[in-house]
Amino acid sequence: MSLEPPPGYYGAAGPAPDAARRGLILDWVVSRRIASGWRVESRSGSQAVLVRGQPVDHVLHAFLAVFSCGAWSVVWAVLALRNRVERVALTVDSQGQVLTVQAP
User: Fold this and answer.
1) What average pLDDT is seen over the chain?
2) Can you say whether the dihedral through the CA atoms of 36, 5, 25, 49 is positive or negative?
3) Alpha-carbon gap, residue 96 to 16, rounded angstroms
4) Cβ neighbours for 57, distance < 8 A, ≥ 6 positions apart
5) 17 φ/ψ angles, rounded to the nearest 5 degrees
6) How far, in whole angstroms, is CA 92 from its chain's centroid?
7) Cα dihedral sign for 48, 37, 39, 74?
8) 12: closest CA among 93, 97, 99?
9) 3-state SS, residue 61
10) Which of 9, 23, 48, 87 lies 20 to 30 Å from 74, alpha-carbon distance?
C-alpha cells in the first residue's frame, strides 16, 4: 500500500505546494493510516504523530494480581512482554513529499 498522495495533489515539475496544500497532503496520508489501525496522538500544520497499540495498565494488573494471590501475575507478565506500542512521525516537506520517521 502506497502512502503517497494520489496524483494531482502536487506536481513534480510544478511549483512547490503552499501550507494549505501540504496540510491536505498530510490529511490524506493520516486518513490512510487511520484506516489501517493507527490513531492520531498529535497534529500540527505539516506534521502528525500516529500511534498503534495500547500501553499496559500496570496499576490495574497489580491490583488484580494482589487480589488473586499472584495468579494474575502470569497474565500480567505475558501482556507486558507481548505488548508493543508503535509511534511514527509523518512530516510533509516543502516539496510535498511525505517523510516517515519511526519514533521510540
Assistant:
1) 84
2) positive
3) 7
4) none
5) -70, 145
6) 15
7) negative
8) 97
9) helix
10) 87
Contact 47, 89 (CB under 8 A): yes
Alpha helices in 11-95 (DSSP H): 19-35, 58-67, 72-82
C-alpha 55/C-alpha 39 separation (Å) is: 13
- Flag whether pLDDT at 41 surpasses 80: yes
Phi/psi at 35 (5° precision): -65, -25
Calculate the CA dihedral of residues 37, 57, 85, 31 and round it to 10 degrees: 30
Is 27 in contact with 98 (CB distance < 8 Å)? no
In this prediction, residue 46 has a pLDDT band, given cuts at 50, 70 and 90, of confident
pTM over 0.90: no
Q: At what angle do helices 58-67 and 72-82 cross, to 10 degrees?
A: 160
CA distances from 6 to 2, 24, 26, 103 (A): 9, 11, 12, 26
